[in-house]
Amino acid sequence: LSWNEAPLPAVFPPVRLEINDSEGHPSSSHQTLKGTSKWAVSLENLLEDPEGVKRFREFLKKEFSEENVLFWLACEEFKKTQGKKQMQEKAKEIYMTFLSSKASSQVNVEGQSRLNETILETPHPLMFQKLQDQIFNLMKYDSYSRFLKSDIFLNHKKSEEQEENSPEAQTAAKRASRIYNT
């Protein structure tokens, strides 16, 4: 199974934003941000959402830089790896796929030459952290802003808005408000 075929992990647990009134009770008019609205807030939010990751990958593939998000995801998954043997195997796979001079999906990171195969013998969960941070910042300050202006993002946002404004969605919202306001 290659990184391109691997199922996408849920990177972080979803974040629920809550607005409280002056007495500390949840605001009844508050809606939790979802989908493209949440993605547009930050790259972190985008990477928390499997659908967001899917759309971002689709965009990066068109820009010939999908390896960046795949490397980032691989590092996130690597941090959860238990056991020295499994860690060594995954570390080697990440190195050979993204960091080696012969890598099939080589990422462009500074200090790459300093990371050699000897480090793979004594792996630890944060061994790729500096490189992962470089790739995250590259995506955040380069690709992410272009993604938010891309057809992939804008078309997805438009279809979300059409779903929200559909008669079925409005009818369901009215029914829900009648139930809660009785």
From TrEMBL:
GO terms for biological process: regulation of G protein-coupled receptor signaling pathway. The keyword Magnesium does not apply. Residues 42-153 form the RGS domain. GO terms for molecular function: G-protein alpha-subunit binding; GTPase activator activity. This is RGS10 protein. It comes from the Eukaryota. InterPro entries: RGS (IPR016137), RGS10/12/14-like (IPR046995), RGS10_RGS (IPR037879), RGS_sf (IPR036305), RGS_subdom1/3 (IPR024066), RGS_subdomain_2 (IPR044926). GO terms for cellular component: cytoplasm; nucleus; plasma membrane. Keywords: GTPase activation. Residues 158-182 are annotated as: Disordered.
